[in-house]
Design brief:
Blueprint lengths: L3 E13 L5 E13 L2 E6 L6 H8 L7 E6 L2 E3 L3 H4 L3 E4 L11 H12 L4 H9 L15 H13 L5 E5 L7 H16 L3 E6 L2 H5 L4 E6 L2 E7 H6 L4 E7 L2 H10 L3 E5 L2 E7 L2 H10 L4 E7 L3 H8 L7
Parallel strand pairs: 3-8, 3-9, 6-7, 7-8
Antiparallel strand pairs: 1-2, 1-4, 4-5, 9-10, 11-13, 11-14, 12-13
Helix pairs in contact: 3-4, 4-5, 5-6
Keywords: ATP-binding, Nucleotide-binding, Transport
Family: Belongs to the ABC transporter superfamily.
Protein name: ATP-binding cassette domain-containing protein
Length: about 300
């Protein structure tokens, strides 16, 4: 077993809504995050990611279960490790009229971080040149990177980012991804939650997939992809609409891809061609696509999280 930055066992949290309804947000979550590298914490909206992160950070109390951060039971011994943890759970507040650098200098002074750290963290988040510009002129991606820079001030070993790319354009998403990859490569542990697999697949070393507050799969990206028994195939067929109807009725997930169809969850491609041929629909091209995390995710979380 590798060294773990985070470990939870049987973690559980129930909310009571104002109308008296009970919502089980996290139900018996077992999560292991190895030390070093980027770990994707993945699940559909409402699957319990934010709730789990808030419990780990001691922001809300768990109903049951155990958690450790760097082998210390939390929340009991959180004070011993809190200095090694940086998190962005909600967007921090910065002064709009001050530059990014000035904002960071104020924060550094408040937490007792050396002033030269500010230059380092601006570099680490590729904000170096724009550090002297006013915060209010920053793009959303730059604001988010400044938030990451702020968490880096105290040089934490574990960084926790809850949906850091929400609302960003593709360029902003790429910048955040590169920042996370850089941190992982330096030996930091980065836990990043997301409901969008494509974003995390490219950057994560290991992943945990959750649904309805429970662990559905975990391991290296290759292990999780390899664990699926089915694959995605790309097919060319003249009447795509009719083919979609036939395949959907057979329980397969069909997506349009230009003049082709992508069919997820295929066990035997031959069966698919036979099914279509039975309806006088003839496949003129069939290419098995490497199983990707997206199709594994869709399979694992089918029907999950739509509370
Ligand atoms: N304060 C609360 N009171 C009542 N129910 C809540 C509260 N916070 C979260 N929930 C419910 O708990 C479940 C898990 O929510 P949570 O925010 O942890 O999921 P998530 O995976 O982070 O989703 P998202 O990606 O949408 O943030 C959802 O059904 C949500 O509606």
């Amino acid at each position: 077993m590798p060294d773990l930055a985070i470990s939870t066992r049987g973690l559980r949290k129930t909310y009571r809504t104002r109308r008296g309804r009970t919502v089980v947000a996290v139900q018996g979550l077992d999560l292991d995050v190895p030390v070093g590298g980027v770990h994707g914490f993945l699940g559909p909206n409402g699957s319990g990611k934010t709730t789990s992160i808030r419990m780990l950070l001691g922001l809300i109390r768990a109903d049951a279960g155990t958690m450790t951060v760097f082998d210390r039971p939390v929340p009991a011994r959180l004070p011993e490790v809190v200095g090694r943890v940086g998190a962005i759970v909600e967007s921090p507040k910065f002064f709009p009229a001050f530059s990014g650098r000035k904002n960071l200098e104020l924060l550094a002074a408040a937490i007792g971080a050396p002033k030269q750290r500010v230059t380092e963290v601006l570099e680490q988040t590729s904000l170096g040149e724009r550090g002297k510009d006013r915060f209010k002129g920053y793009s959303l991606g730059m604001k988010q990177r400044l938030a990451i820079a702020a968490t880096l001030l105290k040089d934490p070993d574990l960084l926790i980012f809850d949906e850091p790319t929400n609302g960003l354009d593709p360029a902003g998403i790429r910048e955040i991804r590169e920042t996370m990859r850089g941190l992982g490569d330096q030996g930091k542990t980065v836990l990043v939650s997301s409901h969008i697999l494509a974003e995390v697949e490219q950057v994560a070393d290991t992943v945990s997939i959750i649904g309805h507050g429970r662990l559905l799969a975990s391991g290296t990206v290759a292990e999780v992809i390899g664990g699926g028994t089915t694959t995605t195939v790309k097919i060319g067929v003249a009447d795509r609409e009719a083919a979609t109807r036939v395949l959907t009725a057979a329980g397969l997930v069909v997506r349009a891809d230009g003049n082709y169809l992508l069919v997820d969850g295929v066990e035997h491609p031959a069966e698919l061609t036979k099914r279509l041929a039975d309806q006088q629909l003839y496949v003129n091209e069939l290419v098995p696509i490497r199983a990707d995390l997206e199709s594994v995710f869709l399979e694992l979380t089918a029907g999950e999280g739509l509370a």
